[in-house]
Amino acid sequence: MKRQNKLSHIIALSFLFLFSMVSCEKAFEEALDRADDSRETLTGMLNDADKVRGMFQACYMGIPKYRFYLYFWTSEEELTDNCFDAQGQSMDAWRSGALSPTNPAVWAGEQANTYSNPTIAWWGRYWGAVRYCNIFIENIGNVTVPLEQLSQAERDLMLDEAIALRALYHLKLISMYGPLPFIDKSFTLDYAGWKDMKRPTYDEVANRIATEMQGVIDRGKIPFKRDPLNTNDKYRMPLSVVYGLKSRVLLYNASPLNNPTGDKAKYEAAAAAAKKLLDLNAYSLEPFANAKKMYISNYNVDLEAVEVMWRGRDRMAQLSNIAGMDLSLAVPKRSNYTVAKVGETPSQEIVDCYEMKNGAMIIQNYDATHANPTFTPEAIAAGYDDISKPYSNRDARLSRDIIYNGNLFGDSYQLGSITVMTYLGAPGTGTNGNTTSGNAKKTYTGYYFAKDRDPLWYGAGTVGDGNARCNQHNIIMRYAEIWLNYAEALCGAGRLDEACVALDQTRLRAGQPSIKAVPGYQAGNQPWLMKRIQNERRVELVLEDHRFYDVRRWNLISDVNNNTVSGILPEKVGTTNNYTYKRYQIPFVWACHNEKYKVLPIPLVDGKLLPGLEQPEAWR
After folding, report:
1. Would you call 34 helix, strand, or coil by DSSP?
2. Rounded to the nearest 5 degrees, what angle is found at the Cα of 110, between the Cα atoms of 109 and 115?
């Protein structure tokens, strides 16, 4: 694209540090390239309908196309205790404790396979997106295009989408970096007020975000659901998601990290926001038998008619290639081609969160290594056997979401059904075991993920054929989250019976008993119920980019609760089809669950530019 010397005042980013953010500038310019090359001034852009739409499209630059947007094909889920990934790049830097004000450890650019010096990460990504939204919001009223070329209804629609997106980006920022000012102006580089900016309270900025969302809801310009027959329209945020985001930000505001006194009024506000959406009865939960289709259906399938509220725009054809298993060497062979890498694999900790079929929890407490936990009396009474049959009689979501030794994954393309063996020495898919060296295409935890993977990716043909026949969209928001938001908010507000009813929605869908019917149910015990809600959320929303934020807002990571991750070693007993299982602590350095990782540091360059925004306490 030809650079125009008058364009610099348009793409100047909100902080001096972001002025050099190449990926953001590229995203904006690519959006503008949808118009012709004759844009020299902002005035000229505002007199061209296509260029105005290009400016609007740039507002979406902060929304990842797929989950694996971190370098190198890394997901936010991998940065949590739900997963383990042995690869280097972003994952190794994060896992090993490299995070600092001069090193964000992960590169959060637009392309997961393109490396740039990771000096900005999420900070640059989301502030850059805020900047684009502010430019559009400030200038939409100055558009000189005739109404017959760009109707008032379209202008109003784009304006409210930009406002909602700006609020979402602020939510992302404060969920990572703690309370920050709500920036609603596209400041120029000579702005003199940076040094005077102060951190607001989390309550102040969260309520500002909620107010912005409510304004969009009240105006009703955005369709509640997008056109199911128009995939381009479905890329854009529906009004239902704005309702959902309001419930999310108010719940985050009520959570222990941001509400250490447990102010019930904050939980009541979050509950009310969730109930507003639930009362519309516009969505429902998919039957369990259909639930996997939410993750592997073509974009033109109207999943948004039932539970899915918003999906990522990329079909992530390569998901099983960059986070899969090598079935080309399995016996029997179930794929004609191998995978690039194993990617994210389930930790033993997420597996332990799937209850027994009667609702009994598995773990009472972990030892320091997580290799020798204490099991609950309820699990033992229900027949739990950690050594011989750890996956028997468990929540049905376990076999759907997690591939464990001997689990049936589904049917490959033309090469038969896939039963995966992960025992040590199993051809192709056997675990690397308790080691720091091994095959990059094999699990180090004894597990693979199945939840959002399509077994048809494997089979006859080539890798390209597998990519061509699969759709594996990430879910940005679905109705189950709203029920879980509601349950958590009600519990925090002390409305425990109502919280149980809300919690039961996802439990009963999965075939689990009502929470009041589980062994050891403790009526009236708020901490007990809150832990069960947190566990249900961890299971139900796994691989949907919630855990990264939940462990922070719940205040679950600190120097005291440093935590670790563990795996399972399945071993075959002689020549029989019997196996034994042994837990072990993952032997890699895992230094990313401490106080310094709870609230991320402001990049050093902007920390100097903004001295009033103090670094989080752990970084001072």
Report:
1. coil
2. 50
pLDDT of 28 strictly over 60 = no
Give the residue from 27, 614, 544 showing the smallest Cα distance to 291.
Answer: 544
> Does 13 or 68 have the greater pLDDT score?
68
Q: Which structure tokens are listed for 278?
A: 């639930």
Output 205-209 pairs: Cβ under 8 A, ≥24 positions apart: 205/170, 205/174, 205/179, 205/180, 205/181, 206/174, 206/249, 206/250, 206/252, 206/253, 206/258, 207/253, 208/170, 208/182, 209/167, 209/170, 209/171, 209/174, 209/182, 209/249
> Positive or negative, the Cα torsion across 212, 213, 219, 225?
positive
- Are the CB atoms for 613 and 199 separated by under 8 Å? yes
Tell me which amino acid residue 348 is.
Answer: Q
Lookup result for tokens 């310094």 = 596
Is the C-alpha dihedral spanning 238, 244, 250, 252 positive or negative? negative
pLDDT in tens, 523-582: 999 999 999 999 999 999 999 999 999 999 999 998 877 679 999 999 999 988 999 999
Q: Which two tokens stand for residue 39?
A: 């844009």
Torsion angle (degrees, nearest 10) of CA 537, 544, 310, 212: 70
For 295, the enclosing helix (H) or strand (E) is helix 293-296
- Identify any residues that bridge with 374 across adjacent strands, giving them in sequence order: 365
* Cα 169 from Cα 560, distance rounded (Å): 31
Would the pTM count as exceeding 0.90?
yes
CB count within 10 Å of CB 359 equals 21
Q: Quickly tell me which residue has 């989080």 as its tokens.
A: 616
Number of helices (H), then strands (E), belonging to the chain: the values are 23, 12
Using DSSP's 3-state secondary structure scheme, residue 411 falls into: strand
Neighbours of 6 (CB within 10 A): 12
Compute CA distances 490 → 270, 355, 456, 477, 555, whole Å. 8, 23, 41, 20, 19
Whole-angstrom Cα distance, residue 596 to residue 100? Answer: 9
Residue 118 burial (10 A CB sphere; 0-12, 13-18, 19+) = buried
Q: Which residues contact 90 (CB under 8 A, 6 or more apart)?
A: 70, 71, 72, 74, 105, 106, 107, 118
Query: Cα-flanking dihedrals φ and ψ of residue 403, to 5°?
Result: -95, 115
Distance CA 250, CA 255 (A): 9
Return the bridge partners of 308, or none.
478
Grouping H, G, I as helix, E, B as strand and the rest as coil, residue 449 is strand
Query: Average of pLDDT values for 439-454?
Result: 97
- CB neighbours of residue 376 within 10 Å: 20
65-83: average pLDDT:
92
DSSP state of 266: H
Instruction: Report the pLDDT value the prediction gives residue 216, as an integer from 0 to 100.
Output: 98
Whole-angstrom distance between the N-terminal and C-terminal Cα of the chain? Answer: 43
CA dihedral 452, 458, 464, 469 (to 10 degrees): -60
Q: Which of 415, 433, 533 is nearest to 483 (CA)?
A: 533
Beta-strand ranges (E) seen in 443-554 are 448-449, 475-478
* Partners of 394 in beta bridges: 356
